[in-house]
Amino acid sequence: MRRAANLFDQIADRDNLRIAFHKAARGRRGQAMVRQFAASLDRHIAAMSEAIRGGTFQVGRFQQFLIRDPKERVITAPCFDERVLHHAIMNVCEPVMDRWLIDDTFACRTGKGREAAIERAQHFTRNATWFLKLDVRKYFDSVPHAKLMDFLERRFKDRRLLELLNRIIAAYRGEPGIGLPIGSLTSQHFANFYLGWLDRFVKESLRVRGYVRYMDDMLLWHESREALIEIHGRCQKFAATQLALDFKLGEVQRTGAGVPFLGCRIWPTHVELNRRSKRRWRNRVRVLERAERLGLSSELELQTRLTALTAFAKGAGVKSWRFRQSVLKQVAVDDP
Fold first, then answer.
1. What is the mean pLDDT of residues 120-146?
2. N or C: which end of the chain has fewer CB within 10 A?
3. In the β-sheet with 271-273, what is the strand arrangement from edge to edge?
4. d(Cα 316, Cα 318) in Å, to the nearest integer?
5. d(Cα 210, Cα 96) in Å, to the nearest integer?
């Protein structure tokens, strides 16, 4: 695949920045920074375009906060105009990165996503006896900047674009030379792109037919337990030597016991939410119902959020109707 060239000017183009603004503002129109940007949109877009072309656009202005959902993570959210820049970059660069990825990786891709990943995983679960689950230890915190830039240089030829990407990657204040901030659009795409090399090793060198990846959650299927054990060792070696990454402890198991993936347990015949997802769903519904009852949110906001929660709980054919009904009935009893 030839390297993409002459993309930098497309990113700095005012029409592209205007599209990026509307994407970045989605769901945030009430925020003060967004309202201020929108009030003088043409002026801000012109200033951004000039700063990007001149190499003076400031990057690395973040706000950080801690979440526990369920594990503790630090979210690093860029300021609004840098969020616009990230969208402007991905408007142009995402198609190039996407074309290089294999079909069976599903995160951060139009027409893919969690539901498609679960459906593909169930397909392989129906046709194999054994599976191996892999995920990377502290993945976002472990991505080496130099290696990531080397991979980006294999796909992009435009030197000004590469310099801009390097500034964005280096701006994260984690360990020197390592890590991507969770909460940034570019980080999601860079992280997904980085593991594309592992995808190709699995599919092209190891010739594994049953393989699905969603960000750093990976599943591999095979009819032979011994073959999967060997594949596990070779994947670990590749990740360590070629990507400077470390896998968590993986284990080969039978598909008949259910395959854990993306908050679900997958069987050949059906898919269910796992225990952790059920607990989180129950707790979120209780919080939403109580907020509406106390007047902290409107009935419309409650319905909108419940709709999103329900979409998560029943997507990809997940069997959850009885569970959801039991939760809603119990909430009605507890919070009359």
1. 96
2. C
3. 259-261, 264-266, 271-273
4. 6
5. 25
Question: Residue 236 is encoded by which pair of tokens?
Answer: 């670990």
Beta bridge partners of 218: 134, 213
Dihedral sign for Cα atoms in the order 235, 237, 238, 239: positive
Residues 202 and 235: beta-carbon distance below 8 Å: yes
> 70 preceded by cis ω (within 30°)?
yes
Residue 96: pLDDT band (50, 70, 90) is very high
Residue 133 has pLDDT above 70, yes or no: yes
Of the candidates 49, 54, 50, 58, which has an alpha carbon nearest to the alpha carbon of residue 82? 58
The answer, yes or no, to whether residue 314 has pLDDT greater than 80, is no
Place of tokens 């027409």: 111
| Model pLDDT, residue 178 | 94
Residue 289 corresponds to which amino acid? Answer: E
Tokens of 290: 């109580």
Provide the token pair at 197: 């090399």
CA 21 – CA 268 distance, rounded (Å): 44
Position 268: which residue type?
P
- In angstroms, the CA 69 to CA 83 distance is 23
Model pLDDT, residue 324: 76
